[in-house]
Amino acid sequence: MITARAAATFEPVGRSVATARAFVRDTLQGWGLGDIVDDAVVLTSELVTNAVVHAGTAAEVLCLRDEDGVRIEVVDRYPERELPLQDPGQIIANPDREGGRGLLLCAALATRWGVDYTAADKRVWFRLDLPERPVGARSAGPALPDSALPVTDARIHVGVIQIDRTGAISAWNEGAQELFGYPADKVVGKPLSDLAAWPHTPGTGTGIAEALQLSRWEGSYGVRGADGRTIPVYASHLRVRDSDGEPSTICLLVRDRERAVLQSPPRTPAPDAASQGSSPERSADPFEVFIGSPAPDDLDGLLQRTVERARDMLDGDAAYLLLATDDETELEVRASTGLPSARQRFARVPVEAGSGRYGSARMPSVHEDLTVVPGAVPLLAGTGMRSVVTVPLKVEGRLTGSLGVATETPGRYTNEEALRLQFAADRIALAVERARLTELERLRRGSLSFLVEASDLLAGTLDRDQTLALMAQMTVPTLATWCAVYTVADQGSDPKLSYVLHEDEDRIDNLKALLSKVEPPDPVPAPGARVWTAPSDAAHSAALRTSLRSVVMGEEDHHLTPGATLATAAAVGGETVVLPLVARNRVIGMLTLGKPTDERFRQEILELAEDLSRRAALALDNARLYSERTAISQSLQRSLLPPELPEVSGGVEVDVIYRAAGEGNEVGGDFYDLFEISDGTYGFAIGDVCGTGPEAAAVTGLARHALRLLAREGLGGPAVLERLNTAILDEGARSRFLTLLYGEMRPQENGGAELKVVCAGHPLPLRLRQDGSVEPAAEPQPLLGVMEDLELYEQHVTLDPGDVLLCVTDGVTERREGTRMLGDDGLADVLTTCTGLTAGAVAARIMRAVERFASDAPSDDMAILAMRVPE
Question: Where do the record's region annotations for Disordered lie (predicted)?
Fold first, then answer.
């Protein structure tokens, strides 16, 4: 039975793929189906790409929810493209091919999938079932004497808070007011994160934003009261949605010591007939005995419970658990208790640290006194632990981890404790490995979704600075606490610090100041992440020097105060890694990721960062190439235009407006010029070469410089254009036809100006008289670059005081809005409103009218040359 439905249609353009992903993600999260969001987003991305990019049709995405899962359908309008028939024994597609990956992913990730054809469309669908969860049941506790009941205050206050989808408080009851001291009008609309003191284990755990997105959550945290004190509370969160489908979270809160009011009782399996009839001396499951019931359903919870129970079992002072990497050459610290574990988390140690039993994690080992063999267990260096026992976790003979228990008393542990710990490790190894594989699968699917969206974002810009910003914003805080991007301009040049980002914006400036004083990492092209200690070393040295100077001499650094220096040292004091940005077999930069003090990177995060760095490097290099091409094109375009306009004698006003169309990475064909031919005589020209790019630029440069040279040789207008026509035709296949308006102007002593004009295929110049009338100032003649023999003639025009001569390129007259075009008549109508304006004001009014004629950006270059004789 379908319980919810959502549909959307997307146009056949590339950006629709990202929009479709966002639609599916928002829909499923609104339905509370966060467990399958990543898989659904990846599959939708592939299928919508097939529809809008490859098939070239609009795509309709339909999400159908039922009690067991969700079905997503992608419909396109290209039914002629059929799937090839495959033999059941054949592979669906080659993973190395560009095509067919969408169906491969459907086969790999979906519960079921298929393709349906109709006369009008093709429908590719897939189904994702929800993961199985234990069915909840109501439970009843035994009757207890009053003395055994939980202790609470005389009056219990239960705070009821409703949180909207943005994380802001939308409802606040009287119980919450009694607990925390805030009236409702003081907190409604504020984010819950402003009040919550959320417990957070660095690098893992659920944050407040994630907890509010879960369908259910239960646990402890703190809430800052109106008096500034943090009040420990126990909370139960339930995510619901209203009749309009709008999601929100209901939070029930009591004081932590009153958690029995809300805490769910542990689930115990109901006894079946066989168990009821069995002997009371029936042995319990060794795993349940060691871990307890119910067992944590997440890897971190299971590992933490394991080390706590191991420490209790051997009465130790500390315990730790390490998991093996995929190649089983190193062990990674994943849980500990009784140790300064924050700095040890995700630290790595080799599996084979030496020869013999005591140097390998593959065998149980007992160290009666670590001071006798310093460094035998690097993880315990400096912790005060003396005696330690370690045992391997193995599944089918393969090393999956190592479990250790330590104490500060020497000689405490013997082989007997090793056997007990090994017995427990054998009981839990399979459960740990199963939980680890489940986590890896979840991370893999989440990473795939992350990389899909990251690639889409990086491909959406060709701006270098924006690409740098995107690289940093995608890594912070998802992958790291802070990030710095170094760029290498040329082969052999020194790296340059180009972008710095920290999850705490207040620390960015101090972090940037610190990194600017540190030698940048070497641009080594070797793949993978390498550790870089220079930032943390420099930060701690600076913090120590500043603190000593402040304490001993009473001086402070004006740039970095002691507090800021210590905060910066803490911010970069953890592990720092460098990943090379390699594109087209050249190192173009380095991506630096860092953690705060006592934190390290997980291997899965480093692998994801390495994959992201490869995509980011190519995007950054594309942006660099595009920027270089744009700079060259703009420089070439400027060289084809006069550097400045000369001062015309006689007071004649001349003004020019030039607007290049497009993104600036191609040279346009429009140009203009105004130059002095001889004393009192000036040449002017405005032209348009067919096309854009280098060929058009060559003709533009030829025309502008030839006009100046030939005119200054004393040739008249027709002779100048005829010789220019011959020069263009001599270019052969590289030639382009050219429309050109060329003229000579001589200001008169009586205040007017005499003009000689030749209009070779160009829009006719318009003359505006003082009475507001507008008329063409020339007649059309053949354009240049087409015919060899041209018979051109010049026309004489007299501009009286107050008259204006307007010359434009066809980008002005051919400005379009749908089927409408400005045209010569529209231009003349605008010009009639310019009586009495200066030449600059006339050009500006014409440009504003052209821009307002259509809402779209201009598709052609535009040049406007206005000349006015003063009154």
Answer: 261-288
Tell me, what's the pLDDT at 101? 58
pLDDT tens-place string over residues 473-483: 888 888 888 99
What tokens does 682 get? 């000036």
Q: How many CB atoms lie within 10 A of CB 427?
A: 16
Mean pLDDT, residues 674-697 taken together? 85
Q: Which amino acid is at 479?
A: L
Say whether pTM exceeds 0.85: no
- The Cα–Cα gap between 310 and 237 comes to 32
3-class state of residue 556 by DSSP: coil
Q: Give how far Cα 222 sits from Cα of 207, 227, 233, 255, Å.
A: 13, 14, 6, 9
Residues 864/656, Cβ–Cβ less than 8 Å:
yes
Query: Which residues neighbour 22 within 8 Å (Cβ) at sequence distance 6 or greater?
Result: none
Cα–Cα distance for residue pair 308/403, rounded to 1 Å: 11
| Distance, CA of 331 to CA of 344 (rounded, Å) | 12
| Strands ordered across the beta sheet of 862-868 | 653-659, 862-868, 804-808, 766-768, 774-776
Q: Give the CA count within 13 Å in the CB-facing half-sphere of 275.
A: 6
What is the Cα–Cα distance from 553 to 46, expressed in whole angstroms? Answer: 65
How far apart CA 674 and CA 817 sit, in angstroms, is: 32
Tokens of 699: 């003709």
Cα separation values, 781 from 86, 700, 764, Å:
67, 20, 10
The CB density around residue 627, as the number of other CB atoms within 10 Å, is 16
SS3 346: coil
- Going by C-alpha positions, the residue among 125, 5, 123, 111 that lies closest to residue 64 is 5
Apex CA 801: angle with CA 795 and CA 804, to 5°?
A: 60
First vs last C-alpha separation in the chain: 85
Distance of CA 831 to CAs 477, 616, 796, 816, Å? Answer: 57, 51, 21, 18
Report pLDDT digits (tens) over 394-403.
988 888 899 9
Ramachandran quadrant class, 446 (left: phi over 0; alpha: psi -120 to 50; beta: rest): alpha
pLDDT exceeds 50 at position 73: yes
Structure tokens, 261: 């009011």
Half-sphere exposure of 712 (CA within 13 A, CB side): 11
Using DSSP's 3-state secondary structure scheme, residue 822 falls into coil
CA distance 195 to 543: 32
Q: Tell me, what DSSP letter sits at residue 256?
A: G
Average pLDDT, the chain: 81
Query: CA distances (Å), 110 to each of 103, 129, 628, in order?
Result: 10, 8, 45
| Rounded Cα distance, 468 and 217, in Å | 37
Per DSSP, the residues of 737-779 read: -EEEEEEEEEE-TTS-EEEEEEEESSPPPEEE-TTS-EEESS-
Q: How far apart are CA 82 and CA 84, in angstroms?
A: 6
**Which of 549-553, 704-708, 862-866 has the lowest average pLDDT?**
549-553
